[in-house]
Amino acid sequence: MSDLVSSSVQVGAAIEDSPKRTQKSGPVYAQRRDCAAIKAQLMNHVDEESYMKVLTAFLQGQISKQTFDNRMKSILKSTTAKIIHNELMRSIIYNAHFSMVPPPNVEVPVPKIPEHVKVTRPGSDNSKFGLPNSPFIIQKVADLRYLLSTSQIGARVRSQLRERNMNCEDINTFEMIQHELRKHIVILLYESCKLAQTVKERSDQISTENSIHENSEENIAESLNNGTNSEENVKRKQIGVSEVLHILETENRYSSTISHAVLVKYSSTL
């Protein structure tokens, strides 16, 4: 059993005033340990220059854990220093792993809300109850990153029609809209697959012609016998962004529904 006991300075007998295990984990993420105060307390018991030099070297991966422990044993000479050192290490790990609170004097940038999300529209008519209409925030499918369900499409269509004093409760209408959206995506993927396969076949043809031109007949025969050009070794090209953008730009059915600004935006990511 003695072989299992670590001699590391970070592992020691549990002290009596150690905090109990957290029963509710929610508040853990809203807290932050004051490492600066713990460090200032520790510096009263150790040589600051030696301690920080070893700690910095370990955190930067310049020395191993065993070397770190051996050097810390000579620096942490008192029991109090070891206890405070352990507390500092736990605080650093806690802040790095759990805390969602930023360090002092550090401002976390708040992401800007897209302009189309800032526009609010009436979501439900509460005027008959003497209450203001609840806001309905319109988000694009590109922001949601999934195709809307029939009920979600219905809620959006009703909101748009309500602004124009129109009404529509026909569920078949919403199902038809979703069906057309799905068909729109399927056709786009189908045309992109055709284009990708055409590019792949053309690339294979050019590669074969170059091979015939560069290699002798004996090498070609040997290559065929070894199965180099066999069907199982030919890998189909996956659909890339370039194929999809090409279809969007050339197909009339898409160029009339997708703006040029959207194409420029996604073309810049290539």
Automatic annotation (TrEMBL):
Signal peptide: none annotated. Keywords: Nucleus, Transcription, Transcription regulation. The keyword ATP-binding does not apply. InterPro entries: Hfi1/Tada1. One of its GO terms (molecular function) is transcription coactivator activity. Pfam families: SAGA-Tad1 (PF12767). It is found in: Nucleus. Its main location: nucleus. One of its GO terms (cellular component) is SAGA complex. One of its GO terms (biological process) is regulation of transcription by RNA polymerase II. This is Uncharacterized protein.
